[in-house]
Design brief:
By secondary structure, the protein is an alpha+beta fold. Helices cover 63% and strands 13% of the residues. The protein folds into two domains: 7-49; 60-220, Roll (Thiol Ester Dehydrase, Chain A), CATH 3.10.129.
């Protein structure tokens, strides 16, 4: 009995080989589906829980923050917008440095922190995502939302700038110190930073003169009254400190509001008085 012809054998072999490859292909597809599913289940949550503030570089924090300034009589729209923007940028700095500090990427002395943060807020790049005005009783409220990027280099630049400004101020004459000039330009970062430097150097007489001048320029900015509260604490005038904290809180300084609440529990300060 004759066996199958070579042509028939080749056909059968190729058919079996094709079926085998198809079977392998199906199994491979199933395997990839399983692997893909596992990756989705176990890897995707890691991306979800990574802090959204971080950029890919690792030493840069990108985030969105907001700032609000409530206008009072005499405040211009330009002033309100600049202070709301500064508040949003300052919030970005305060949030970002927590992560940068945790990785030992920067090290700023506590006594200079307010100065560096304020100057850094003026240096960081930002994009205004939303600007909105709201009617609040007899006044208006400026709301600004930004996307900001905070890099280690911004903090280093702010520290160097603070040192240069301090060196420049140390060369001022006695008459210049006793009559500190405040620029007419709206520059909240530079203006408030000088107050913090004077307080740190314990130049209290000059600091008080400067803060009074700053109050005339920014009569409804909470940060000015927060700086005044620090001054009154240093010269042991608790009554004036309480007044300054109340004004700072009223004008939107959250730190002042928090301090008042804490002190009211310990010292029984009347928040309404």
């Amino acid at each position: 009995m004759r066996g199958p012809s070579p042509l028939c054998v080749n056909f059968l072999d190729s058919k079996r080989t094709g079926n085998m490859w198809r079977a392998i292909s199906v199994e491979s597809q199933k395997a990839w589906y399983v692997i893909g599913g596992l990756l989705f289940v176990f890897i995707w949550p890691l991306f979800y829980y990574v802090p959204h503030a971080w950029s890919l570089e690792g030493d840069v924090v990108e985030l969105e923050t907001t700032g609000v300034y409530k206008t009072e009589q005499g405040d211009s729209d330009q002033l309100a917008e600049q202070l709301a923007l500064f508040q949003a940028k300052n919030a970005a700095i305060e949030t970002a440095v927590k992560y940068l500090f945790s990785r030992n990427l920067i090290n700023i002395h506590e006594s200079r922190k307010r100065e560096i943060y304020s100057l850094a807020a003026s240096l960081i790049p930002s994009q205004v995502l939303q600007k909105q005005w709201k009617k609040e009783g007899n006044s208006r409220e400026c709301f600004i939302r930004i996307r900001a990027s905070v890099a280690i280099s911004d903090m280093i630049k702010a520290e160097k700038k603070d040192q240069k400004l301090e060196e420049k101020e140390s060369q001022e004459s006695f008459s210049e110190e006793m009559e500190p000039s405040v620029s007419h330009n709206i520059d909240p970062a530079r203006d408030i930073t000088k107050a913090y430097r004077l307080l740190r150097r314990k130049e209290r007489r000059v600091a008080m003169i400067y803060l009074d001048a700053l109050e005339k320029k920014y009569p409804h900015w909470g940060d000015v009254y927060m700086a005044k509260a620090i001054f009154y604490f240093a010269v042991r005038e608790p009554g004036e400190m309480k007044k300054a904290l109340k004004r700072a809180c009223r004008f939107g300084n959250k730190e002042a509001c928090s301090d008042l609440e804490s002190m009211s529990k310990v010292h029984g300060i009347d928040l309404e008085g």
